Amino acid sequence: MATAANNITPISDVEEIELDAAVVDPARVEQQIDEKMIGERIRAMRLRRSMGLVELGRLTGLSASFLSQLETGRVVPTIRNLARIAMVFEKDLSCFFQPERRVTFRRLAKTDRIPITRKQKQGSRFISESLGSLIPDRHLVPCLAEFLPGGDVCEFTPKVFTGTEFVYLLAGTLELQAPNRVQLLEAGDVCWIDASTPRQYLCHGTDRARALIVTEHTK
To answer: What are the average pLDDT values for consecutive 10-residue runs of the chain, which has 219 residues?
Structure first.
């Protein structure tokens, strides 16, 4: 006759069964990391500050090469590295793991836009109104630009970067100067230019020129 002891699972076997049930699927771990898009969140925070990888590396003590791999998902971040990055942007560590609320619509009233007059050199003036706060991902940056008439005072030299630049002229006449090329843009014209090209915009004529400029920074 079998005793009750024969129906009892040895303790060592119980421990082994519980351990097997607790093992996390590595594929599921990778899926969780991908779904949180940690690299994309880091890049978005960096671009909102107009910060380069070298500067972020200097502030965090991490190399620009490592940060680039982190943003593109080629390496998996450690909690310590995420904490360093979060501190630079004055964020809590949880910001990398919280579900993102999907934004489908944003409005920026005319009264909320702040015109900024920029001076690039003596007598040079250029007025811009940034619309970038509307865009969740700041690799796309639109702005309203106003070019003042009067020869050199309306000259504007945009930054050279990897990406593209679109110009839609709303009013006036704008002269686009690029290497070996000068192009006049009239109201209603649309222009695309490789943003790695050195270029200048110059108001042509006696009236102000106004344009919608959209720059797209390559990821």
So the answer is: 49 46 58 66 85 91 90 85 90 78 72 70 68 70 84 66 92 91 94 92 87 84
Distance of alpha carbon 10 from alpha carbon 137, whole angstroms: 57
User: Is the entire prediction scored with pTM above 0.70?
Assistant: no
Domain spanning 110-217: CATH superfamily = Jelly Rolls (2.60.120.10)
CA distance 47 to 60: 16
Alpha carbons within 13 A on the beta-carbon side of 24: 7
Residue bearing tokens 């949880």: 94
- Distance, CA of 7 to CA of 30 (rounded, Å): 41
Polymer length of the chain: 219
Paired tokens of 116: 């900024």
Q: In DSSP terms, which residues pair with 142 in a beta bridge? A: 214
Domain boundaries, the chain: 4-96, 110-217
**Domain 4-96 has what CATH class?**
mainly alpha
